[in-house]
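REQUEST ID: PR-0412
SUBMITTED BY: lab tech R.K.
PRIORITY: routine
TASK: structure prediction, single protein chain
INPUT:
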Amino acid sequence: MAKIRTEISIESCESLTIRRKRYSVRTFCEECRRISIMVLPTEAAFLSCQDIDSIIALMYENQLHVRYVEKKGLYICLTSLCLYKFESEFEDIRNDSIKILADTKSNNYSFVNEE
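STATUS: complete
OUTPUT:
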């Protein structure tokens, strides 16, 4: 008598969803001349990984598009936030590393040339 073999495989998938209240408004940005998503300054700071003080400073320097929405408050254009180039705190470390690598390469080449 033949034996019947049955294999059962179980796959599982796990996902985690975190929902946050979004404080955004879709409205016309006059500087972009298009409909854009506008966010509160606190949300802009969160999305750009910056502190609120730097976002407010950029607002006063007219680096970000700002619009006052009636009964809701001051909002920042998400497009202008995404297009702004924030200075990286690691930029100086990266530049120093590149200089050190360049120096070691030039020293190696001069060492090879001396032989």
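NOTES: Confidence is low (pLDDT under 50) at residues 108-115.
REVIEWED BY: pending
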